[in-house]
Fold this sequence. Notes:
alpha+beta
Amino acid sequence: MGRALGRVAGVPRAAVVGPPRFPRRRSPRLATLPRPRRGSPSPPRFAERLLSRRALPTCARTSQGLGEVRGARGTWPRGSHLQRHPLTAACQGPSIHMEPVRAPFRTRLGFTRTMTPDHIDTVAQHIRTIDAYLREGVSRRDIARRLRAKTWRRVGKGGVVPTSVWDQWFPHQRHLARVIVASRETRSRPVFSHQSAAALLGSPIWQFEDAAPHIISSSAHGRTPTLVRHQFAVDECDVTEIHGFRCTAPERTLVDLSTTHTRPEQLLTFADSILARHARRERRVDREATELWRLAMEKRLRAARGQRGVRLLRSVVSFADARSDSPLESTSRWRFHEFGIAVEPQYAVPSPRGVCYFVDFHLSGRAIFGECDGRSKYLDPNLRGGLSPGEAMLEEKRREDWITATTGNRFIRWGVPEVSTPKRFGEMLHAFRIPLDPPGRRLW
Length: 444
């Protein structure tokens, strides 16, 4: 009909079909920006690639915050995704000047090394990213071949660690590597929680389980193969920063762990570590600081009344002791408690050198000393004090002979396998002929 009318009456087709369609004008700010193609990364990842190509060399600071990010090929306006991305977090401030845009967590190796404590630096120095290898000229085929051959171990979505290094790491170090990779892959700076926060804080957990990192999210709750999101509110005072990584404070982390870890020895190892930071200096323990810490934890437990794990955590807090030197000692002390045996940690015995030897445990009311030793005591060079494994064992033998001769008490020793379960610990006590209180008490 329209065509016929146009031909007969000479009316233009546009007047019959509808109004003329003018070309759509783009914003002058965004017109010169290279737009991502379909299937390309999101705007923050796209901006990261631009940074790697030096397409966005400078950023303008204003008194209101981020104004515009100007580059050789265009300008990102305020309010865009780039403003909220960690890549431009360093650009916000009160001063007005131009400075290069730096990713606070990116280095030549893909992750920062200069602003991390020792336990994070030990892990971060071995992590590389797939993007970093691609920029160095390594093809995707070579990367896939090395991953199939298990020469490299993939961590998270884009992290790579040599398999030889990965196999030597403890579970908490492997989990820390996942945390470092996850912090880089998220768009905003996440707040890590639960066992991920414990790994960042450097506080040990008995039989640490390497799993996906845990973060606190305000908009989503769920689990993916590389990340676990918890949706709940957290006060700003309960968030701390460990050299660029945000995580929950130690006391808040302990409360969160009680909801996911039901074994008391796991909570006790973390609680002993926190208490030692508050109340212990060398071999001296401040009793007043210990009581203040217990009162603060009791206040948190009252606020979390009805929450899962609160009752168990209350007993753990009351049993925590700052004198425990390792997770093995904390777990051993809990095993003795399960069998009704009172022990005194770090029992002092005078030595011939004018100082004191400290024994891990003295069984109260019994002429027995207990020592729990792991493999690291004799195999880790950092714990041997420059001695060889044979020299370290000889020195320990002389120490035990002196303590036995001067006190008349006998020694018992155990390791990680004996405290793994109450049954194995009870079998060890029975083999060492240690009477239980009450007699005949069995937990297996």
